[in-house]
Amino acid sequence: MTQRFFTYTKGYRITFAVLCMCIVMCGLSLSFDYAWAATPQKPKAANPGAKAGHVQRITPQIPKSNRYQKDKVFLENSDILTADDRISTEYQVLKGNVRFRRGDMYMFCDSAYFYDLTSSLDAFGNVKMTQGDTLFVYADVMHYYGDEQVAQLRNNVRLENRKTTLITDSLDYEITSNVGYYFEGGKLIDGKNNTELTSRYGRYELDTKQAEFTTDVRLVNEKYTMETNLLQYNTGTHIARIIDQTSIESDGNTVLTTSGWYNTSADDATLYDRSVINSKDGKTLVGDTVYYNRQLNYGEARGNVVITDAKNSVILDGEYGYHDENTHYSYVTNRARAREFSQKDTIYLHADTLCTLLDVDSVRLLRAFNKVRFYRNDVQGICDSLQMSAADTILNMYRHAVLWSDDRQISGNEINAHMNDSTCDWATLPNFGFMAQHVGETYYDQLSAKKIKAFFEKKELRQMDCDGNVQVIMYPQEEDSTYNKQVNAESSYLKLNLKAKQEIEKIAMWPDVSGKVSPLFLLKKSEQFLPGFAWYDALRPKHPDEIFDVSDEMKKLMSEPEKTGRRSKKE
């Protein structure tokens, strides 16, 4: 009886002890779950490569809550989910085919630390983010912070948005605003027109397709290269906004600017703030506003325009300018001026329109149209239109041409003057010419003929050859330097030679000569002048700036019929 009781009691005690141990273990388990759920702390990113001391495998349960919450991250799939309270109660360790969801965005990786309470995660290996069929992001590592809704992607990062690709090693992507930043160098590829943009720092807005690049910015495509330190670019319009010192190079052309727009699709630019175009033919175009089309190879400018042709020693300036690289044609209008500096002295030339071009022999020509005025130290002139050849430096003046040298005036329907070094050495008037020189008071030496050729030396007239209907009025100087008679003569031909200080050395007129010598006191006013005489000294430019002074008197002269050498009824 006693033995049985002892046995029973012993068995009871063993059973009771086992039962107590089960109750204790259950209580510990409940306490563990409660502590984890009741005392949440702000999560911290796990150290990459951290390993749990003890792994507990958990079968993930899909919650029944709304899985379309915009700011909440849900775990969609993982081959293995583990947790260890001895390491952290804040995250779970996921491995194998890991997939998360945040609204309509999915995130994939090989492994991750998942912070469920804050919708944060650290993802490793084959990281991928997708949103619809428009956004794909790839990286080796991603840290996503749910409270800030920012994804930090590192190593081999590639963001693809339709035909735009952004490549970098460090990208911070703001989920709510759809804006990405890189700060350790990156490249944006606009696949539509094969444009690549690289820089040290960059910002890209997916919604507006607007990007901003700073420091060592380089835009490259198959046609040109753009370099700057600050640039804005839109992948939708393919237009680059220039807001810093920028150079654009293509096929030997260089554009320098600090402000403007460049359309990479149309390959044209609108530039501001004294932008410069250096073309491959050696010309430079500068203006307050410059339009340049690289496909058609032409540029136009407005506001203080300067076109420089250093190779041919010509500078054009005005309020509007145009240059075509294909035809090597340039022109300026609106207060247009040309400066030709191939000789020692610069020629300053003004007209309504000035242009430079190549003739059929590839000789550079300078042309001026309407109300032409020019100045050089030794020679000045006016006419309706003008042409200068770079090959021989000949001024061809047309319609109401007037040329002054020292106190001498030459006028005609056409004047061709050869500019040699620092002076004019000869001039021809092939279609009526008139020469006049003021000798004192109201007296002028005068000569007119159908054709005239004059030769100059050291700015002084040395010889004149006249052909056809020659008429002469001269006032010979007496030994006491006074004038007391007039010589009036006519013939078919004349040859005149002069010494220094314009002293007549020889004069010959043939074949038939008629005329008379008259004392000055017997001369009538009408006998002092040949038919067609006019003294235009009031129209003469006496300073480089006076080439712009186009008076009403000059406008009237240019509108009159050309002279024929015969006195009109009005005269």
Mean pLDDT: 85
Biggest β-sheet description: 37 strands, antiparallel
Q: Work out the strand percent.
A: over 45%
- Into which percent range does the helicity of residues fall? under 10%
Q: For this entry, what is the oligomeric state of its chains?
A: single chain
How many distinct beta strands?
Answer: 37
Principal-axis shape equals: rod-shaped
The fold-level CATH name of the domain at 393-571 is lipopolysaccharide transport protein A fold
Q: Helix/strand-derived class?
A: mainly beta
Protein architecture, described:
By secondary structure, the chain is mostly beta strands. Among the domains are: 56-180, Sandwich (lipopolysaccharide transport protein A fold), CATH 2.60.450.10; 393-571, lipopolysaccharide transport protein A fold (Sandwich), CATH 2.60.450. The protein is built from 2 helices and 37 strands. It has helices at residues 2-38, 552-559, and strands at residues 56-58, 73-77, 80-83, 92-102, 105-115, 120-131, 135-145, 150-161, 164-174, 179-182, 186-190, 195-199, 201-205, 210-220, 225-234, 239-242, 246-250, 253-257, 259-263, 268-278, 283-293, 298-309, 314-324, 329-340, 347-358, 364-375, 380-389, 394-405, 408-420, 423-429, 433-440, 443-449, 451-457, 460-474, 485-498, 504-510, 514-519. The protein has a 37-stranded antiparallel sheet that branches. β23 and β24 (329-340) form a beta hairpin. The termini are far apart.
